[in-house]
Design goal:
The protein is an all-alpha fold and 183 residues long. The protein has helices spanning 12-21, 26-36, 40-48, 50-65, 71-86, 90-111, 124-132, 136-154, 159-169. The protein starts with 11 loop residues before the first helix and ends in a 14-residue tail after the last helix.
């Protein structure tokens, strides 16, 4: 007798329906259901905690704006994150990296014609616009840079250097910001 039990994430429409049945408006329920990525408990908790969406909005703004940031602005972001990391807010920094990785994942989905699978459903217009300025190699580079920074931080590499390296490796777009002389 096998005791294996396979659990799969709950579908976005099911989570949305649950949230609406709990009194949440349609648009907020749709956003939370997408962000939950199959985690019903997270969706319910987020629907009851306004700060969750506020923090997520801040992270999304930072993630979406990094493409157009100058080198100086990227260094400022790295400094702020590394100060947080060094002051004991490691989980917050890893959450920021997760948000950034999610943004790059969504860019990849848009670039490959799978926009119906994006998590950041409230930022589809911005994702669509940004994905037109990047090729698949740029997006791959962005994803790898974020993943490597998270691994390095987990291995106690100097936080400031890991974060600066990541942010400088992320593609620049001529239309959205400064482009370095050479990559």
């Amino acid at each position: 007798v096998s005791s294996d039990l396979t659990l799969r994430p709950v579908g976005t429409p099911v989570i949305k329906s649950l949230l609406v049945s709990r009194g949440l408006d349609e648009s907020k329920a749709e956003l939370l259901a997408a962000l939950a990525q199959g985690r019903v408990g997270w969706a319910v908790m987020a629907s009851q905690e306004p700060k969750v969406l506020d923090q997520r909005e801040d992270e999304t703004t930072r993630s979406s704006s990094v493409l157009g940031c100058s080198r100086v602005a990227r260094m400022a972001i790295a400094e702020k994150l590394s100060r947080s990391f060094s002051s004991g807010k490691r989980e917050q920094v890893f959450q920021s990296l997760d948000s950034l990785a999610g943004w790059w994942r969504d860019l990849l989905l848009f670039k490959t014609g799978c926009s119906d699978l994006v998590v950041n459903v409230d930022a589809k217009d911005q994702l669509a616009r940004q994905s037109t300025y990047l090729d698949l190699a740029d997006i791959h580079c962005g994803i790898l840079a974020v993943e490597e920074a998270a691994t390095e931080l987990d291995q106690n590499v100097n936080a400031r250097l890991a974060l600066e390296n990541m942010l400088m490796r992320l593609p620049f777009t001529e239309t959205l910001g400064e482009r370095p002389a050479s990559r």
